[in-house]
Design brief:
155 residues, Four Helix Bundle (Hemerythrin (Met), subunit A)
């Protein structure tokens, strides 16, 4: 049985975004020592690589999800938003030399203006609910449908 075209397209886009993050982290690696907060720069480098692996893995699995078009769109966009809303504040914090109010372990003593700290905090705090919702939907979408259960004898 062929998965719906939208699931295939979303899976392909996730793989593309994962590879784009690998490209980003490759170039970012050259800049790590030149940003205002090098420790945060290293965190960006690592985080982009991990998110790239995650998106590629989920892109490969996406066609197996038991989703209709609407649910695929919701999970897809929540996942992308969560990934970017996690990465972008780290990038900004590294460039600004800010972030110790929210990213204290990675930022160390790097403290920015009140506005910079607020931008970092407000963006990254929205990433977790979106990611949790997306992962919950993906887990639900990985259930076996009734036809497959009957054919395989799965419980």
């Amino acid at each position: 049985m062929q998965p719906p075209a939208l699931l295939m397209r979303h899976g392909h886009r996730l793989i593309q975004l994962g590879v784009a993050l690998f490209l980003f982290t490759s170039f970012w690696g050259f800049a790590v020592h030149n940003v205002a907060a090098p420790r945060l720069g290293l965190s960006v480098h690592t985080l982009a690589g991990i998110e790239g692996v995650l998106l590629i893995a989920l892109g490969l699995v996406w066609q197996r999800l038991q989703f209709g078009n609407a649910m695929s769109r919701i999970a897809f966009w929540l996942l992308i938003y969560s990934a970017l809303a996690t990465l972008v504040p780290y990038v900004l914090a590294a460039l600004w030399g800010a972030g110790n109010e929210t990213l204290s372990l990675a930022a160390g003593s790097a403290h920015g203006t009140a506005q910079q700290e607020a931008v970092i905090r407000n963006v990254i705090y929205t990433a977790a609910p979106a990611g949790i919702a997306s992962f919950a939907l993906i887990l639900w979408g990985l259930r076996l449908n009734t036809r497959v259960k009957r054919e395989t004898g799965a419980a």
